[in-house]
Amino acid sequence: MDALTNTLIGLVDFALYFGLSLIALLLFKLLYTLFTPYDEWKLVKERNGAAACALTGAIIGFSIALASAASNSISLLDFAVWAVVALIAQILAYLIVRLFMPKISQRIEGDEWPAGVVLGGVSIAIGLLNAASMTY
Fold this sequence. Notes:
This protein is an all-alpha fold.
């Protein structure tokens, strides 16, 4: 009976962290797409592969960092703080790429795949580094 009780308690914690993760992911998607000068979601719906690569990379990068925050946090509040840090890091990744490739936004809007792959790849790399840095 104790094993069942412990499992049920674990399910509550899972639901809280998973629910907060989904909220953070939706918030990230909303903020990230507002921050960029083009509407990735609209471009993806229009079959723009470069936008799909860029947005998918950003979402994966954020999710990697979010997963690390969830597994290393000591409370839901701690997790929420690190989720915000991950969000900021992903936006900084976009700004860094824009610094080195000033026309990346126009190139993604023009469906230039190399631009989307670079932005998506940098976003994943930043997510990995962010996640590794969260192991305290």
